[in-house]
């Protein structure tokens, strides 16, 4: 039964820590249930919320069951009516009994709701509910031109683009723009022109039951999240040396590097190695699972709970590390994920009845947890289960001190990477829109002693891989892309030339590209500068607070 309490907790918790809704679930230390189960429950319930609200209100169960809050009732009724195995709790648990006491009425109202919509099957009903939700969103009016498709990366460790076009996507119709995909679950396919082996489909398409998804042949990963690994490894087949991912959890970028190496080495007797790590032991476990699911165990070594800044770059085990990928903690201000903190239409809360039972002292049962569970009070009075609006992370006022601390940490991490003796290429990325975390960090790093003494410079646009070179959105000097971005960006010093700004890549939310806010830049140095001794002292990398604010990418094999 902790599954439902955990789901209520994550839905009603504040989002001030940053990061995507999914990353906050996976990084939380207070959940008893599997993060994957919690996320799946919330996302599936969000697809049915308007119908579940209708059924619960018609059945009138909230006025008879004081233990149930509107949010808790919606989650429980979802599993009662739609989950294959029903409610995930013992038959004698009070909350399961609270639902099953009314199962005849609930089942009857569910059938009525299906008949009213003229649907003969559950899939038909699901499609009808989706249309209703889309119509309701249109009625409210959205001025944004943004299209947020479902991005799918082909995993070259297990398959190829050609194989997937002839199998998973065989029945799909190729389209020439994201806008042509539509908002439904139509079988249309857009092959991305910037990142190899990346495609987009309509946001309503569900791959979770497909063999390719289950076997790790396709990975659900946002397009912007694919930029760092591609910028690092490029299109060339002659990469020499090992790779290191310094802030790796949940693992999409690590497995993308592995996929690119596999593609480059196809048909050749070439062995490359990736060292991947995350300072959080909890997140490291997710990282290891991702690596295994992608089939990358033979080329990726995961250092669980390893702080990147605590590494000694001169250790023998890092002597052959020539490329480093860094996606450290950030404000998460660019995240506007499609499913980020789903807004659920909740049934109206019943007015509190006056009865003798309210005055009676109840004996607490061992499994009767609702009085001590977080989020129940909020859920009882809320009309929406979303603790934040979809764009709240981007628009919330982040205090300058917080951004400055993040920027300082980010610069230290990049400078530490530049001290690895054999390194010739480093990429730095964030899911932030703030200048102080992006161009300002690049400016500071290029001016640092380690960069100057070791001959590091920015990877110029003409040196970037074909797809990245063609990407139109580049670095900025001020935070004026939207005209109202906060964070005192105007006061942030960015001592970069026009050529250096042109070398930085930006992604913006609410445009035609189908992405959230993202930034990436590459650093390179000539091989003649390699093998200088390291003079930097190891330092502590990041706090728990910083760790939870990081990584806004689509995580793993479920989104």
Automatic annotation (TrEMBL):
Low complexity bias: start-end ranges: 377-388
Gene Ontology biological-process entries: rRNA base methylation
Active-site residues per Swiss-Prot or TrEMBL entry: 431 (nucleophile)
Compositionally biased region (Acidic residues): 542-559
Keyword check for Disulfide bond: no
Source species, domain of life: Eukaryota
Pfam families membership: Methyltr_RsmB-F (PF01189), NSUN5_fdxn-like (PF21148), NSUN5_N (PF21153)
Entry binding sites for S-adenosyl-L-methionine: 247-253, 278, 307, 327
GO cellular component terms given for this protein: nucleolus
Ranges where the record places region Disordered: 345-391, 529-559
UniProt-listed Gene3D superfamilies: Sun protein, domain 3, Vaccinia Virus protein VP39
Key words of the record: Methyltransferase, RNA-binding, S-adenosyl-L-methionine, Transferase
Molecular function terms, GO-annotated: RNA binding; RNA methyltransferase activity
Annotated PANTHER family: 28S RRNA (CYTOSINE-C(5))-METHYLTRANSFERASE, NOP2 YEAST -RELATED NOL1/NOP2/FMU SUN DOMAIN-CONTAINING
Protein name stated in the entry: Uncharacterized protein
Taxonomic source organism: Aspergillus fumigatus (Neosartorya fumigata)
């Amino acid at each position: 039964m902790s599954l439902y309490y955990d789901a209520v907790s994550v839905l009603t918790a504040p989002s001030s820590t940053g990061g995507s809704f999914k990353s906050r679930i996976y990084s939380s230390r207070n959940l008893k249930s599997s993060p994957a189960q919690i996320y799946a429950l919330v996302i599936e319930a969000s697809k049915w919320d308007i119908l579940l609200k209708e059924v619960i209100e018609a059945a009138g169960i909230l006025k008879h069951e004081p233990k149930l809050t509107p949010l808790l009732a919606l989650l429980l009724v979802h599993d009662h009516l739609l989950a294959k195995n029903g409610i995930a709790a013992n038959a004698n648990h009070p909350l399961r009994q609270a639902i099953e006491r009314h199962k005849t009425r609930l089942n009857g109202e569910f059938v009525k709701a299906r008949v009213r919509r003229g649907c003969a099957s559950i899939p038909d009903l699901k499609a009808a509910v989706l249309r209703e939700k889309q119509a309701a969103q249109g009625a409210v009016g959205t001025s944004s031109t943004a299209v947020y498709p479902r991005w799918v990366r082909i995993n070259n460790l297990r398959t190829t683009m050609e194989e997937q076009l002839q199998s998973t996507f065989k029945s799909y119709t190729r389209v020439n723009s994201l806008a042509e995909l539509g908002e439904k679950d139509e079988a249309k396919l857009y092959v991305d022109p910037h990142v190899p082996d990346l495609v987009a489909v309509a946001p309503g398409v569900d791959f979770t039951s497909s063999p390719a998804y289950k076997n790790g042949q396709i990975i659900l990963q946002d397009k912007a999240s694919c930029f760092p690994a591609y910028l690092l490894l490029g299109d060339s087949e002659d990469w020499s040396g090992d790779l290191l991912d310094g802030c790796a959890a949940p693992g999409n970028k690590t497995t993308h590097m592995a996929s690119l190496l596999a593609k480059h080495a196809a048909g050749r007797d070439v062995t490359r190695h990736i060292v991947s790590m995350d300072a959080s032991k909890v997140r490291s476990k997710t990282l290891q699972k991702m690596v295994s699911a992608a089939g990358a165990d033979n080329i990726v070594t995961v250092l669980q709970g390893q702080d990147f800044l605590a590494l000694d770059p001169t250790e023998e085990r890092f002597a052959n590390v020539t490329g480093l990928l860094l996606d450290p903690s950030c404000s998460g201000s660019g995240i506007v994920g499609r499913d980020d903190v789903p807004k659920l239409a909740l049934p109206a809360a019943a007015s509190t009845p006056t009865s003798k039972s309210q005055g009676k002292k109840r004996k607490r049962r061992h499994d009767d947890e609702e009085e001590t569970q977080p989020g129940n009070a909020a859920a009882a009075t809320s009309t929406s289960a979303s603790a934040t609006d979809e764009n709240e992370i981007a628009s919330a006022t982040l205090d300058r001190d917080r951004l400055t601390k993040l920027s300082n940490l980010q610069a230290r991490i990049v400078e530490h990477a530049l001290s690895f003796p054999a390194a010739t290429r480093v990429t730095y990325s964030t899911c932030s829109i703030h200048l102080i975390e992006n161009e300002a960090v690049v400016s500071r790093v290029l001016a640092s002693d380690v960069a100057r003494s070791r001959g590091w410079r920015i990877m110029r646009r003409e040196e970037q891989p074909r797809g990245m070179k063609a990407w139109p959105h580049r670095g900025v000097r001020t935070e004026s892309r939207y005209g109202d971005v906060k964070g005192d960006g105007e006061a942030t010093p960015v001592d970069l030339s026009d050529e250096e700004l042109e070398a930085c890549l930006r992604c913006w939310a609410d445009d035609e590209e189908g992405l959230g806010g993202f930034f990436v830049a590459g650093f390179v140095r000539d091989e003649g500068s390699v093998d200088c001794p390291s003079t930097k002292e190891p330092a502590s990398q990041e706090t728990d607070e910083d760790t939870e604010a990081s990584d806004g990418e689509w995580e793993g094999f479920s989104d």
